[in-house]
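Format is sequence with structure; example below:
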Amino acid sequence: MNKSLNHPNDELLTAYSAGSLPLSQALCISTHMEHCQSCGQRLQRLNRVGSQLMQQLKPSPASAELKSRLLDQLDSLTEEQSLAEAKPSESNSSIPRCLRQFIESGYEELPWRRVSSDIHSVELCRDSNGARVELLKIKPGGSATTHTHLGDEYTVILEGSFSDESGLYGQGDFMVKGAHDKHTPVATQDRECICLAVTEGPIQFTGFMSRLLNPFIRRSYA
């Protein structure tokens, strides 16, 4: 397990422990924790606190309908599904467990779409709040155009590394960029960089010429 230098803040990790985060953000934190022992320990402490608080609450009776729905959901979890999650195939063993539901084999088998000469992407899913969950692949030494965001962007490095105006990020690093953050990610020269990225709004190019593309990006995002 690698030592990650960039972590979710206490507010995000507490919401993750409480199960109140959107799926897209929870995917990023789950992925990060597969590389970060310290965040796993922080989560265990938060879970213990939450458990103690729950024990202090007075239980309320559940309706027969709720019990029936819960039992139906439990019955739908077949033994084959449980074994598949517990024993993933060797071909995807390097992929974070929480992403294996979207990636059947390796990253190279995904239907990558060319975004620019340096970047390819593949969308994994959309969250119920409209957030886009995708993988980005930057070639060695490649860069993205300088941009800001119309919503928060959550990123976790899966392979390789990149740098921007704030520093260097390696495998497992977790970062959040908001609407007021402007950055230019550049992959290191040694290998390609693959990232899990969640965007809650389209990016906005800031260059004089590249800004002409912003209306098309907004339309494609929707």
The two ends are 37 Å apart (CA to CA). The longest strand covers residues 119-126. Residues 146 and 207 are 7 Å apart (CA to CA).
